[in-house]
Amino acid sequence: MTRVVADISTSIDGFVGGPNDSRENPLGDGGERLHEWVYELDSWRTAHGLEGGKTGRDDEVLAESNENIGAVVMGRRMFDNGEGPWEADPYEGHWGENPPFGVPVFVLTNHSREPLEMKGGTTFTFVTDGIESAVERATEAAGDGDISIAGGGSTIRQCLEAGLLDELEIHLVPVLLGDGIRLFERSDTDGIDLERTRVIDSAGVTHIRFHVDP
Fold it and tell me: Which among 127, 131, 133, 193 is most buried, taking Cβ atoms within 10 Å?
């Protein structure tokens, strides 16, 4: 059965990106610190066409998060840190001509754009009619695979508040960013119950997995 899952690195004070994010500074000031635990891992390096890398429990967690993913949903700001209309010669995302996804990717946006087919099996499709539509289209594209809600924080929140998310894994990094993009904001929901199903601790990060109660 297809699951809708999300995993994201988060600071102790609840930020998933630093302030002043831009196309040239996609994670915001200090945001790279949230992902330092990833960059030397074997599974991350392999996905980005690099050789070598560390193995061990953190690498196993990261590799597991990418298993059986049949489609991805992400927000416009994760794609290019933009918000307004597309440019005449629109940007093709942060990942170059061969993105590491290798599956269909559905980008939430307020501005229509033709699908963007890249090397390696990644096609970006731009969805203008909301999170429910994006997840529905991703489910159709994924076949027997799972749906990864890749981020950013707003997209994960929308999916969670719409009752579409089955599992959330937070990679809690021992950093205080002080400002930036929050994972959670004030919400109009009546409250959402999460069941903690796993905790794995290492020197640079703590992985906490939650099942989202229906």
Answer: 131
**DSSP output for 163-202:** T---EEEEEEES----SSEES----SSS---EEEEEEEE-
Q: What is the pTM of this model?
A: 0.95
Q: Are 65 and 7 in contact (CB under 8 A)?
A: yes
> In whole angstroms, what is the distance from residue 186 CA to residue 190 CA?
11
Question: 24-38 as b/e, with b when 16 or more CB fall inside 10 Å?
Answer: eebbbbbbebbeebb
Position 213 pLDDT exceeds 90: no
CA atoms within 13 A on the CB side of 141: 23
**Tokens 């093709």 map to which residue?**
92
Nearest CA-CA partner of 135 in 99, 102, 171, 163: 163
Q: pLDDT (tens digit, 9 = 90+) per residue, 117-162?
A: 999 999 999 999 999 999 999 999 999 999 999 999 999 999 999 9
